[in-house]
User: Fold these one by one.
Assistant:
Number 1:
Amino acid sequence: MTLLETDRPALDLEDIVASAAQALEGASALEIIRWAVATFGDRICLTSSMSDAALIHLVSKVKPGIDVLFVDTGYHFAETIGTRDAVQAVYPVNVINVTPSRTVAEQEAALGPRLYGRNPDLCCHLRKVEPLSKALEGYMAWFSGIRREETPSRRDRKVVEWDGRRGMVKVNPILDWTQEDMDNYIADNGVLVNPLHYDGYPSIGCAPCTRPVAPGEDPRSGRWAGTGKTECGIHL
């Protein structure tokens, strides 16, 4: 039984978010995860880009068997698909492959080739944002692996947020982790990592829109390079 299933009067989800965001600010990732699992039970899932399995490793320690949603855009590197398959084999989780409504070929037939180059915002919306939003409809909350230090738009985020666009709760357990924290956790726990990280890709998206990053460059500068775009739209 979760906290939402007790005999207490039903609480508005936005009220839960407001109180939890304040109470859990500064809490450890595991404390945040335990609160979310106790609150939402089987109505919470985890999303992953398969850049690494740090959050998957953390969450599965508290809730084995949790659904992990992976958006297969049709444009991923082979290494990313391999990481997805390895995660399913290694961790006690249920990986769900989420796909867009159109295949790449169908999208190109309807909208022309290389939409990712001509209109990356629309391509991301059709192949990432839209299918993920549909897949999340069966849940009350979702775990995200965003971190404050990654982009300026993430610096003011909360560990527990109201996702108004989807009408659900978003939980960000590793929001305050630095890259050093992430690296140490991965090394200490033998966490699976996408092999592209070792080839100069600190941030990994779709193959046509991701390039290697030179030493000293911003880790996300290889995403949509030269377009001024920094977010796919999932976390806006």
Number 2:
Amino acid sequence: MIGKLKGLIDSYGEDFVILDVGGVGYQVHCSTRTLQHLPSPGEAAVLSIETYVREDAIKLFGFRTDQEREWFRLLQTVQGVGAKVALAVLGTLAPSDLANAIALRDKAAVARTPGVGPKVAERIVTELKDKAPAFANVDPAVVHLAGAVDEQRAPRPVADAISALVNLGYGQPQAAAAIASASRSAGEGAETAQLIRLGLKELAK
């Protein structure tokens, strides 16, 4: 199996690059984000490779980092997500942003991917929620709170405060982060109005 290729960019296609490795041109399929970050033809590039062997073809998928390749694999463990959809998701969200979106149950961010509807986005977030926090760079308390809200087990004042901030136009992840911080400041038993007031102060910082 091919795990990595190092060579010169020969040319670009709509969703692939031809990488010249010692005179052999490898066609490597990449996300739009990866293609945009690769250098001009004639310049050197290194790609982490995922090799798919089928009865009728061998297909190579290329990634700028091993972490991006790992997410490509993880995404395809979700029902209804194949290589094409996984590449589309990675073309829309960088690996760190994808990890944050899943950790925070931000289905809307995942659903921005062309060809990914709300149902598939929900499956991605639900089925990968236990794996994402390891890659995410958000406060674990916020991840915990986002999960509690998503599963309807957060205290009512907390859930209502987040809902109020969302209704004011803030994104769900922003609102959850602000209310998590507010909850820490106010302590247990804080009322909704107090959490909203403290949450707005956090967002204004």
Number 3:
Amino acid sequence: MFVAHLTWPEAGACAATGVTLLIPLGATEQHGPHLPLSTDTDIAAAVCAGAATERAGLLVAPAVPYGASGEHAGFAGTLSIGQAALELLVVELCRSAAETFSRIVLVNGHGGNVETLRRAVALLRAESRDVRLFSPGYSGDPHAGRTETAIQLALSPERVRTELAEPGDRRPLPELLPLLRAGGVRAVSPNGILGDPTGADADEGAALLRAATTALLADLGRWWPQDHEEGPHR
């Protein structure tokens, strides 16, 4: 299931069967005082692993833990490589991966990566590489709020500082966007939270993860219906 666990002959043998490579992309950025910096990466990796567990013909690449997180500047621990570097990284990574794997899906866990990844995918597809982008959509709080807290509680409850969870700026995202573009998250939320993480629970998070995995599998079936017709792995 994981490319990094294979030898090169094993990877070649898998590629010969027409497998699809899933590449999780996230970020290393602040998620309030209660969630780890790896939250976006953790979620992307979990969605990929869940899909590969349920359906044959999927391999998961090592996650890319850095993204375009400039909006989180000013919070300790945020490590952003910016849009230009992210686009270059993804393009070169997929060019390399396409030498082995004919189909690649970027599974993105950080909203700030989306526009950059769309540009990268457009370029790669113009080069006749079969690369797709999947970004799970969640209703609810936009950042470090109830949604992401619930998912992290389902994944790694020991890494969530629930005693530090507190509300942040709870205004709707459309209202916040102009302020975020002008001054970043720090300008609207001193604790880094957009939403309210209090009351989140692991059951809710497990359901959200399940929904994201189901959505990814549905897109895979839509992109490559001949594989979908073969049925689930288990």
Number 4:
Amino acid sequence: MAQERSGAATFKGNPITLIGPQLKAGDAAPDFTVSKNLLEDVSLKDYAGKIKLISVVPSLDTGVCDAQTRRFNEEAAGLGDDVVVLTISADLPFAQARWCGAAGVDRVITLSDYKSRSFGEAYGVLIKEFQLDMRSIFVVDANDKITYAEYLGEMTEHPNYEAAVEAVKSLR
């Protein structure tokens, strides 16, 4: 059974339980399996040799998640070809594709953790009460080492966009 971190975060001030470890800079990035679409699964190794900015959101259909994904889509343009920006949520792949089309998001790769919650458990962001992934940011270098991790204390708050982008740029 995965580790539970009760009261590790809140949703609108109410405590929620996160499942999995709390990762930090210097840790090896755990592998995961998520859905790129309904028929294709991908894992960390599919992005081998790239710097990975992993933006985790509970659902693209909420205001903060929408803003977070749009912001990283804009930032992706200036990060270079050696960087991949992944947005991971528990939204179904159909919903992710629909949202990206409507929002004009074309530089971020959206990945779904809906099948097994593999990413959520491995990165310590699975919310037990909702079976969604908690808002967080991870920067993983080309050798799959975590160089930056931000776990939000409150689900409805924005992450530190500037710090995440600087963490990516510092690897170049």
